[in-house]
Each structure stands twice: as structure tokens, then as C-alpha cells.
Design goal:
- The chain has 182 residues and is α/β, with parallel strands linked by helices.
- The chain has a single domain, classed as Rossmann fold (3-Layer(aba) Sandwich).
- The chain is built from 4 helices and 9 strands.
- The strands form 2 sheets. It has a 6-stranded mixed sheet. Strands 1-9-8 form a 3-stranded antiparallel sheet.
- Strand 5, helix 4 (112-123) and strand 6 form a beta-alpha-beta unit.
Length: 182
């Protein structure tokens, strides 16, 4: 049997990639971009659970126009460090037909989940579907899809914080951190 993970040690030894102040500046910029395009469209923001809930909370308070909030829960990771098949745990309760939908997530890694969520929204006859992510991981393993709004680009490392997790821990870390050696 393997030893339990010392999650405090993981945090203490990790590399800070982006500070809390940098995260807030990125959120301010994304909010300004969304406001410019959607202030008159009363969009439906869908948080992609679980990681997208942190970005949603920070982003929604920066949007000063009428909107609705709901969530969708689909993941490829399920607490693991690499993704597999997409698993659906919850669909939005709000009807999507005819709506301008913005999917809100923490990270755009390879893009399989976001692409599938956009396809799901399109199948529900939305007026439009866009996506906003806190961070975009820079590498060449992505699907043919790009988010409409991106807070920051990050290195191709295993990251956590501000909604992203390390084995279901540290979503609450105040910046973006990279696990030592990963």
C-alpha cells in the first residue's frame, strides 16, 4: 500500500506561476471582454463543475449587467492527473434553447471536455455558445477548438489553485501553482 500524500508538502514545494494579484487582473480583463460583447444579451453563464465554480464566483461579481447562472457537471479527470472518457454528473436545470450561453471553466488543457460541452449546448439549440477559461495550458495536444476568453496562458505542467486541483485538494490555493517535478 502506498504512503498517504502530504498535501501541505505538495503545496510548500510547488512553484508559484501566477500570484493572486495576477489572477484578479486576468479576471478583470476577461470580465471587460465579456461585458463588451454581452452586456445587452442577458447571457446564461454555466459553471463547469467543479473547477469552474471558483472562476464563476470571481467573474460573476465583475459583470454588472443582467445574467443568469447555472452549472453543468461533466469531467474527464475524476480526481486523477490525466483524463479519460467524459463522465456526465449533471445537466443544466435552465433551458438552453435560444440562449446566449457562456461556459465558465478553470483550465483549457487538451480541450476535449470544453468541446463536448459546446457540442451539447449546440444540440440544445442555443442562440450562441462561447467559453471562458481562467488559464490555457500551452502545448500542441489540443483538439480543434479554442476558448473565446482566456485569462492567462500557463506552462505545460501539472497546476493547481484558483479552482484547479491536485488529487481533489488545493482548489482553494490563492494563485496558480505547479507541482514540483510534474
Amino acid at each position: 500500500m502506498s504512503e498517504p500524500v502530504d498535501y501541505q508538502k505538495v503545496f510548500d514545494e510547488s512553484d508559484l506561476l501566477h500570484s493572486e494579484a495576477e489572477m484578479h487582473a486576468a479576471l478583470d480583463r476577461v470580465a471587460a471582454e465579456i461585458t463588451k460583447e454581452h452586456a445587452d444579451s442577458q447571457p446564461l453563464l454555466l459553471a463547469v463543475m467543479v473547477g469552474g465554480v471558483v472562476m464563476m464566483g470571481h467573474l460573476a461579481t465583475r459583470l454588472s449587467f443582467p445574467l443568469e447562472i447555472d452549472y453543468v457537471h461533466a469531467t474527464r479527470y475524476r480526481g486523477e492527473t490525466s483524463g479519460g472518457d467524459l463522465h456526465w454528473y449533471g445537466y443544466p436545470k435552465t433551458a438552453l434553447a435560444g440562449r446566449n450561453v457562456i461556459l465558465i471553466d478553470d483550465i483549457f488543457d487538451e480541450g476535449y471536455t470544453m468541446k463536448a460541452l459546446c457540442e451539447y449546448c449546440e444540440s440544445e439549440n442555443v442562440n450562441s455558445v462561447q467559453s471562458a477559461v481562467l488559464v490555457n495550458k500551452v502545448h500542441d495536444r489540443k483538439v480543434e477548438y479554442r476558448p473565446n476568453y482566456v485569462g492567462l496562458d500557463i506552462a505545460d505542467r501539472y497546476v493547481f489553485g484558483f479552482g484547479m486541483d491536485y488529487q481533489n485538494h488545493w482548489r482553494n490555493a490563492p494563485g496558480i501553482y505547479a507541482v514540483k517535478g510534474l
